[in-house]
Each structure stands twice: as C-alpha cells, then as structure tokens.
Prior knowledge:
The complex is a heterodimer of chains A (234) and B (136).
Chain A: E1 17-23, H1 27-38, E2 43-49, H2 55-61, E3 65-69, H3 75-87, E4 94-97, H4 106-117, E5 123-127, H5 138-155, E6 167-170, H6 171-176, H7 186-197, E7 201-205, H8 212-217, H9 223-233
Parallel strand pairs in A: 1-2, 1-4, 2-3, 5-7
Antiparallel strand pairs in A: 4-6, 5-6
Helix pairs in contact in A: 1-2, 5-7
Chain B: H1 3-21, H2 26-48, H3 50-59, H4 65-112
Helix pairs in contact in B: 1-2, 2-3, 3-4
Amino acid sequence: MSAATTGPTPAAATDDTWVVVPLYQEATAVGEVVRELRQTFAQVVCVDDGSTDGSAAEARRAGARVVRHCINLGQGAALQTGFDFALRDPAARFVVTFDADGQHRVADARAMVERLRAGEADVVFGSRFLDGRTEVPRLRRVVLRSAVHYTNLTTGVRLTDAHNGLRALSRRAVGSLRITHHRMAHASEIVSLVGRSGLSWVEHPVEIRYTDYSRAKGQSLLNSVNILVETILG
Amino acid sequence: MLLIQGVLVVALLVVGAVLVRSTADVRHQAVRRLLLVLLGVLAVTSVLVPGAVTWVAERVGVGRGTDLVLYGLVVAFLGFIASSYRRTRALEAKLTELTRRLALDEEARDAHRGPPAVEDAQAPGTALPDADRPGT
Lengths: 234, 136
C-alpha cells in the first residue's frame, strides 16, 4: 500500500510500520497529531468512529489514510478495525496505537518500534509510571493504580500502567489478538490477550501530556465503573 | 367465574402469544418458550384457584401467596436482564463486524481511485458514508 503523501517526506525506515489512531470527535486536535506523526511515520491510519465534527476530513488533510465507521462503535472496535487494516498490507511488520488527542509523544512511539525491531518482544506497552516525566493528577493516579492492580491480578501480566493508549505490536501479535470489548475495557483486554497468547512483552517509559484539552476530553473517572463492569461481565 | 379472572386469563394468553412469536436463536428460543408455557399455566392456575398460591407459599415457608409471586417476579426479571444483556452483546458483535467490513472495503475502494478528495464541503452531522458520494 502506498501512502497518499501530501505532507513532509518521512523517514523511509518506517515503511513497515502503521500507526493506528482511533478517532472520535477530535477535529481540533487530530490534524496536528497526524502531521507530527507523519514527520516520523509514513503510514498513519485514522479509524474514525462515526465522528460528526469533521474529524475524518481533518485527518485526511493532514495526510492520514482514514477508515470510517459509519456508526459509533467504541474505541476497542476502532482499534481492531485499524489492526485489520494494517494486516491487509503485506509489508506491515509493526503497528503502533496512538491516541488522537495529542497526549502521546511521537518520539516515544518511535523508540518503542525500535525495541520491536531489535527483537526485544512482540508487544511494547507504554507506561507513564516508569519515570518521573508525567505529572499524573492525584485522583487519576489512584484510579489508574487500581486498574493496574486489577489487570495484574486477572491477566498474569505484571504492568505498571494498564490504560495507556500508546503501544507497539509486531505483526504476529496483531494477528493473534482479537479485541471484542468495544468500549474502553479493551485496554485490559489487550493485556489479558497478550498474557494468554504467550506473546512476549516489555514496558517502555512514555510521557503523557495532560493538557487542558486532553483533560477535558479524556476518560471521565466515572467511566472506570463502566470499564470494570464490562471487564467482569465479559 | 369472577370478571377479574376472565380479564386476567385473556391478558395472560395474549402476552404469552406475543412473547412466543418473537425470534432468536433456536435452542434458547425453545427453552424460553417452554418456560413461558409453564409460567402461563401457573399464572392461569393462580387466577382460577386463588388459594393455590397461598397454599404453595405456606408449604415453602413464605407467609403469603403475593410474596411468593413477588419473589418469583424478581428472579424472572433478573433472568430477563441477564438474557437481554447477552443478546445485546451478540447483536453488537455482529453490528461491529458489519461496520468494520464496510469501513475497510470503502477505504480500499477510495484508495484505488487515488487520493480521496478532502471533504471540505461536508457539513458536520452528515456522516453517512455515501451521502457525500452519490452515484456509486
């Protein structure tokens, strides 16, 4: 698949990598996110999950390929669609998942792909708790820590950060995962699928930029109740 | 026969008929229908022989017949919630597969035609996939 290049010429070394950006109602942020990504990664696919605010057009203008759910299904479903899209490209060896609201750093994503390339593991999870770069608001820290605790208890995979949208996966890993939790419980689901499938994994320290924008758009803490229920009921 | 007995029996039969005709996957459907018939028989019996429920209630250690009916209702309602949750999940999974397939095929089609036109003219709120591409 050739990327519809309209932006700057990205490094050729990333032609075997697809960056999957689940996209829902992020018209004001996604353009900048895609442009920044494309300075490093040639191939960016935004999975627009039924946005009505012109997010898809913004992403396209910034040079991303856009796959568009005609109805809103949830972020887990969008990620799986992105995975399926990447797998359709026979040249794809690595897949990065990256949030559309600008909270992740492209340099982190790049370093994570390098670790995959070096053969360190099948999956690299981003973690905001491995170094001191990220200032996590206190209540959020408590909820995230509980989520990690729960995920560690139930999946057998010991992580420091369970709900980080920045991950890098090998083609083999992407091919063996099947996300079925459509809304937000997919984060724990991915971890548990990785644990069960015997894929190797490592964590990589990443920085989360808690801007006012991402704070306003981000997961409401109440939604963690929904995540918990979905995770338990299956 | 009391008037209320007649009304209740007719209402129960109508509701039962409507429920039995609804569709879903075959084995669950069969079980559900059997349970419904059982429930119908019990309901009609309790209407025709009002003392029976109280009699059963006393045998199982519940004071009044109405309490027994209430407990049964609570259990049945929880069962209904559980089964409708499962059915919704199954339906969602199908809907997801369908939407995903549609999205990927559309993208592949557009990619074949060269870089897609940027949809500047598209007004917010008209996100239907083919609304902006008539004639395909």
